[in-house]
Amino acid sequence: MAKNSVTTKSTKKIKLDDLHGVIPIRMTNDYLFRALMQRNTNVLKSLICSLLHLDPDDVISVTILNPIELGETIDDKNYILDIKVELNGHTTINLEMQVINEGNWPERSLCYLCRVFDNLNRGEDYEDVHPAIQIGLLDFTLFEDSPEFFANYYLMNSKNHRIYSDKFRLSVLDLTQIDLATKEDRAYQIDRWAALFKATTWEELKMLAENNQSIEDAVTTVRQLTQEEKIRQQCEAREDYYRRTAGREKLLKKTTMERDELKEQLSQKDAEIAKKDVDIAKKDAEIEHLRSLLAK
Q1: Residue 86: what pLDDT?
Q2: For all residues of the chain together, what is the average pLDDT?
Q3: 130-143 pLDDT, tens per residue?
Q4: For every residue of the chain, which 3-state class applies, written as one string?
């Protein structure tokens, strides 16, 4: 592959007018998202330009550093679906679609970021370290007390907010908070990408694809991917994984609630017993007092 070009696998044109109804697999499916970005790097380039506020003309090359064999079986415990991308041969990006809130995204994303930031080769100076960016596309709200559609996090001085280094950055796109998109987010069409990933029908996708070649390419590629048996099977396997995980989470939540209710009941019983002990102690004291009076 030429170093100064972005390449993508050639795809047969599909008429979007022929697509109707519910999408068989939504693009929040992390395997489908991975397959889309790997199959069509022009779409990957457009998404990155949107999220990083870049002019597409300034992007010379987009290279996936950890491609997978699309359609091959993945293990629930050992799957690797985060995408490592080298931008212009200079910046390393870690990109991942995360559907399930496992309660550890801040720590997990930091681990991803630190891995791609540690990119010096033997003999290179620390000043030569490449910028690293971790981008999480989350289908849940990371911080419930302060929801935000798109946020960037940096290392900075807690007093004067001076950036410690602009080579270290985390970005979070909350796909559930599109309504909170700012004017700037909309100017870079980040809200349209989020709507693309959250769409449930072909009609929604076709509307988003109007006058937007990158999104049209994404829709066309997704249609092709979902028609490939092996890839569809892997996407369906991921859907099964989500359901199993959701089922476990629901059971765990139910068990936790039942445990908490039992603890509350036991606590109330303990309080009642403690009150009765106090009452008995008072009665004992009164009896002892009466005995003392009688003795006198």
Answers
A1: 92
A2: 86
A3: 999 999 999 999 99
A4: CCCCCCCCCCCCCCCHHHCCCECCCCCCCHHHHHHHHHHCHHHHHHHHHHHHCCCHHHCCCEEECCCCCCCCCCCCCCCCCCEEEEECCCEEEEEEEECCCCCCHHHHHHHHHHHHHCCCCCCCCHHHCCCEEEEEEECCCCCCCCCCCEEEEECECCCCCCECCCCEEEEEEECCCHHHCCHHHHHCCHHHHHHHHHCCEHHHHHHHHCCCHHHHHHHHHHHHHHHCHHHHHHHHHHHHHHHHHHHHHHHHHHHHHHHHHHHHHHHHHHHHHHHHHHHHHHHHHHHHHHHHHHHC
